[in-house]
Structures are given as structure tokens and as C-alpha cells.
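Fill in residues.
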């Protein structure tokens, strides 16, 4: 949408600055206010001041009726009113020559289009941030669940070690008791009357 705005802005102001010049001539093309920095189509990335304007070969066409009159300014007034005039912002699709898939994105002034663009961008940023937060939350929950199933809990492992140590001590006492009982049976039961 920003490319569409840059292209429309350049087109409207180039047309107004070239008003009164014979269209399609090299002279008309020389009076463009905006051009593309890479020589291609004008986009938000490539929009630039036209080389003829930046090198002072020509300026803003102040008057179409009397270009030599320094006090005439009707064309500049047209440019100022063009900022607030309704424009149709049309998306031409992938092939600008094929008008069958042209779609009017917005009709309104440049200011209104820019406001709509800011609103749309703000909504997109908020939506993307919310989606990112949701994905982070789900990822953390999955990680916590995995750790709960397969992870090592040091408190739980410490309790298990104490339990196994007590079981070992109990088994060792049992063996000691059995050893003493067998010793008594074998060594002390057969000796009578000595």
C-alpha cells in the first residue's frame, strides 16, 4: 500500500507540473518533480526528486497559462488542493497493462490514505504481536510439559536417594540380624553341658 501511495503521489504531482506542456514529448518528461532512483517503477523505496528538478534545470510550474509571469500561481494552488482532493488509489495487480484485475483500494485524499495506512499498519502490528505472544506461551507450555515428563527434578531425585539409602540400611540390618541368628543356631545350639 505504501508503494501505491508513493506511485500515486508522484503521478499526480508530475501531471500537475507538466500541465500545459505537450504530453508525450521529451520536454514534458523533463518537468517531472518525482522519479525513480533506479530508473524503474516508482515505489516507496525508489521515489526520489527528479534529476532535472534537483539540478535546477527546471522548477515547479507556477502557472500553466502564463509561465513567464512570476506572480502567477494557479498551478501551485492546484497542487496544494490536490493534497486534499479525493484520489482513487488503484491496485493494478501484477500487470499494470491489464486493467481487468484493477482494484480500487481506497478513495480519498493523500492525508486520509496515509491515516488509513497507519491504522492498518497499527492493527497488523498489534495482531502480529498478539500472535507472537500466543506462540511463545504455547511453546513455554510444551517445554514445561516435556520437562515434567522427561526432565530431572533435583528435589524429587534427592528424595529418591534418601528413600534408597534407608532401604539399603534396612536391608543391611536384616542381613546382620539373620547372620547373628544363624551364628547362634549353628555355633551355640549344639553345645550342651560343657
Amino acid at each position: 500500500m505504501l508503494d501505491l501511495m508513493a506511485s500515486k503521489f508522484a503521478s499526480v504531482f508530475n501531471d500537475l507540473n507538466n500541465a500545459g506542456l505537450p504530453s508525450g514529448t521529451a520536454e514534458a518528461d523533463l518537468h517531472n518533480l518525482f522519479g525513480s532512483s533506479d530508473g524503474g517503477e516508482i515505489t516507496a523505496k525508489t521515489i526520489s526528486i527528479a534529476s532535472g528538478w534537483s539540478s535546477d534545470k527546471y522548477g515547479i510550474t507556477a502557472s500553466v497559462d502564463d509561465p513567464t509571469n512570476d506572480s502567477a500561481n494557479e498551478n501551485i494552488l492546484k497542487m496544494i488542493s490536490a493534497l486534499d482532493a479525493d484520489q482513487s488509489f488503484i491496485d493494478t495487480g501484477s500487470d499494470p497493462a491489464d486493467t481487468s484485475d484493477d482494484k480500487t483500494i481506497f478513495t480519498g485524499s493523500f492525508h486520509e490514505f496515509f491515516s488509513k495506512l497507519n491504522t492498518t499498519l497499527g492493527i497488523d502490528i498489534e495482531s502480529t504481536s498478539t500472535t507472537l505472544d500466543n506462540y511463545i506461551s504455547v511453546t513455554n507450555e510444551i517445554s514445561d510439559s516435556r520437562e515434567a515428563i522427561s526432565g530431572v527434578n533435583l528435589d524429587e531425585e534427592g528424595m529418591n536417594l534418601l528413600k534408597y539409602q534407608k532401604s539399603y540400611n534396612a536391608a543391611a540390618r536384616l542381613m546382620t540380624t539373620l547372620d547373628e541368628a544363624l551364628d547362634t543356631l549353628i555355633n551355640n545350639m549344639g553345645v550342651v553341658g560343657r
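The first strand starts at residue 34 and ends at 36.
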